[in-house]
Design a protein that fits this description.
This protein is α/β, with parallel strands linked by helices. It folds into two domains: 212 residues, Periplasmic binding protein-like II (D-Maltodextrin-Binding Protein, domain 2, 3-Layer(aba) Sandwich); 161 residues, Periplasmic binding protein-like II (D-Maltodextrin-Binding Protein, domain 2). It is built from 17 helices and twelve strands. The strands form two sheets. Strands 1, 2, 3, 6, 7, 8, 9, 10, 11 and 12 form a ten-stranded mixed sheet that branches. Helix 2 runs antiparallel to helix 14 and helix 16 runs antiparallel to helix 17. The chain is globular. It starts with 8 loop residues before the first helix and ends in a 13-residue tail after the last helix.
Length: 449
């Protein structure tokens, strides 16, 4: 794929300044031992960063040709893209799987097909849905770091106190549970059984739990289908039930995610859609919490949608212009090994993106629900964001639309039609440019009208 970089005057100016002043400058002195220094920027902090640093140390100690220096870098996407625009990128960046198409389209990363082929790395070694995050238009642009799947996390004590001995299986069960656990004191909410906007990190995913699709996979955005409208009507029903202002006021009293005042850990919301990482934060901030996890509920009239889950993936890329791409891939290859990957995933208490795990990996894993998350990653009902360069804008539009639904300012149908109308021209523009460069698909939505 031969894509032209998308650069901005502001971006170049910003990185020129950053090159001089940033504490994460990639200009490093040569090592006395002659090892090639590979600079790796990673978004993680705290125990997540510590887990990757341990893998880096293991790699550095395993050979004497390459030395990886890993740095924790906040706002990593923006900084990496700016550094790449300015011609001084790191050798490796730990970015987000949902934006691979954007990175590829903007020519910000290099394809890894040849490196992967030489290393014997292929799709068969991975859980298919995770590997597919890494491809766009038939090329491989990254490889996995840590993966995630999501499930319903529920407060066992709150459910039992409300008369529920097991978690809800259907969305109707979930709604019924909320009606029992939801408690008001005058005009104030004190607790809820479930709240779709807590934490609200995946507003794009609700259609998937109802069998809906955001687009046809190539040229046509399909936000306003009956399944999608049904999903967002269900999402909005919680604000309608208690009043949008009441729910907003309730949420204002939540603590930050990484704190004991987290709404779930503080027993304000009895059940949440959360990822495999949640166990880390519970053991850190509220180890006494009696919680469990189960597959997220499905509509009672759509039992075939059982085991739906939102997938996510942290990825490793080599930015275009990296000074040591070959050496950078040697480290990425190490992370893909059974030893490197399981060391990292155990350190972060997550499941593995690899299709096979070592004996004892699941059985001795520190996350008590790891088998659930590992099995959900194989689900036919796994939900992932669309692979398109406009996903960042599209995702923001969906989030804005869901806010308008929850506030009552728009119906679900109107909000979804508005997203369609705003985003389809942007998708058409991208596809026309790709067609001009000889990249599929061959038709835009305009050709079908």
């Amino acid at each position: 794929m031969n894509l032209t970089p998308v650069l901005t005057v502001i971006g170049v100016a910003a990185i020129a300044w950053a090159a001089v002043t940033s504490e994460t400058s990639i200009q490093k002195p040569a090592r006395a031992d002659g090892r090639v220094v590979v600079t790796y920027w990673e978004k993680w902090s705290d125990f997540e960063f510590d887990a990757m640093r341990a893998v880096v140390n293991e790699f550095n100690n395993s050979q004497d040709k390459i030395f990886v220096e890993v740095l924790s870098v906040p706002n990593i996407t923006q900084k990496t893209l700016l550094a790449t625009s300015g011609g001084i990128p790191p050798d490796i960046a730990g970015l987000f799987g949902g934006n691979v198409a954007q990175y590829a389209y903007n020519n910000a990363v290099i394809p890894l097909d040849e490196f992967a082929a030489e290393a014997g790395i292929n799709r068969d070694q991975y859980i298919p849905a995770y590997y597919d995050f890494c491809t766009y238009r038939g090329q491989l642009w990254c490889l996995p770091a840590t993966p995630a799947s999501t499930a319903l996390h529920y407060n066992v004590d709150m459910l039992k106190a409300a008369g529920f001995d097991e978690p809800p299986k259907t969305l109707e069960d979930l709604d019924a549970m909320d009606k029992v656990i939801g408690r008001k004191d005058g005009d104030s909410l004190k607790s809820m059984g479930f709240l779709p906007t807590e934490p609200g990190w995946w507003p794009f995913a609700w259609p998937g739990f109802f069998g809906g699709k955001l687009w046809d996979g190539e040229t046509k955005i399909t936000m306003a289908t009956p399944e999608n409208i049904r999903a967002y009507e269900w999402m909005g029903s919680y604000s309608q039930r208690y009043g949008s202002a009441t729910v907003s006021s309730f949420q204002e009293g939540f603590g930050t995610f990484k704190s004991p005042q987290n709404a779930f850990m503080d027993s304000k919301v009895a059940a949440v859609l959360q990822g495999v990482w949640m166990h880390n934060f519970i053991t850190t901030f509220k180890p006494e919490l009696n919680y469990s996890a189960a597959p997220f509920p499905y509509p009672a009239d759509r039992p075939e949608l059982a085991n739906s889950t939102v997938l996510d993936l942290d990825i490793l890329v080599i930015p275009r212009g990296a000074k040591h791409p070959k050496e950078a891939f040697e480290f990425i290859k190490f992370v893909q090994s059974q030893k490197g990957m399981e060391m990292l995933c155990l350190g972060q208490k997550k499941n593995s993106p690899l299709a096979k795990t070592s004996p004892g990996f699941l059985e001795n894993h520190p996350n008590p629900h790891i088998k659930l998350f590992q099995s959900l990653a194989f689900s036919e009902n796994a939900i992932a964001p669309p692979k398109t360069p406009i996903w960042a804008q599209w995702g923001d539009e969906i989030r804005t639309a869901t806010q308008s639904i929850n506030s009552g300012s728009k119906t679900a149908e109107q909000a979804m039609k508005d997203v369609d109308a705003k985003m389809q021209p942007l998708l058409d523009k991208v596809i026309r440019r790709e067609r001009a460069l000889g990249i599929y698909p061959e038709k835009t939505s305009e050709d079908n009208n």
